[in-house]
Amino acid sequence: MGGRGREVRSGRKDLVVRPDVRKGPANLALATVVGAGASLSAVLEAGPVIGSGVAALFAVMVVLSALHLYRSRILLTPQEIVHRGAVLQRRRARSSVAEVVRATIVAPQGPHVETVFLLDARRTLLLRINARNYARGDIGRLVRALGVRRSGPRRPVDSGELAKMYPGLHLVSFVERYPYRIGFAITGVVLIGFVGVLVAS
């Protein structure tokens, strides 16, 4: 068992890493508080109907987050690595993993998210693991257990900086690299559509 999280070994060569018993519930509690505040604000400003809709939306998000914490785990065996989420489960052959990139990504207006990228011998992305709910020490043990080349920035970076550090690897999407441009573009399209409706009416 890890110091802050829970790490279970089922045999000498298998490793199971589960969400941190402190970080996971803390993130869930924060989401619940934010949802309650948003719901109350919606009731006061837009009325009970809209407020009820907002509350229902946040309730679904909290339930899904709780399910994710309950089901999530990373399993490493001599044959494969498996990353299981609330619904999806992704499996990759352990022998295909040739490199690990570990980075703490700074999201715009959001928390720092530790992320692990598994690459093959051609440096093609095999698996991306969001390690936000896992203990840092447990992720470190997982990376070391893989026994392959490791790299990554020593300080938190945004998606654009990470893409420049690893050009051509496509570790992050275009939307992640240019979130503000995407936001401005969407806003522009909405405004043009709104103006078009006004002119046509």
From TrEMBL:
Task: Give the source species.
Answer: Streptomonospora litoralis
Q: Which domain of life is it from?
A: Bacteria
Q: What is the lineage of its organism?
A: Bacteria, Bacillati, Actinomycetota, Actinomycetes, Streptosporangiales
Q: Which keywords does the record carry?
A: Membrane, Transmembrane, Transmembrane helix
Q: What is this protein called?
A: PH domain-containing protein
Q: Which residues cross the membrane?
A: 26-44, 50-70, 182-200
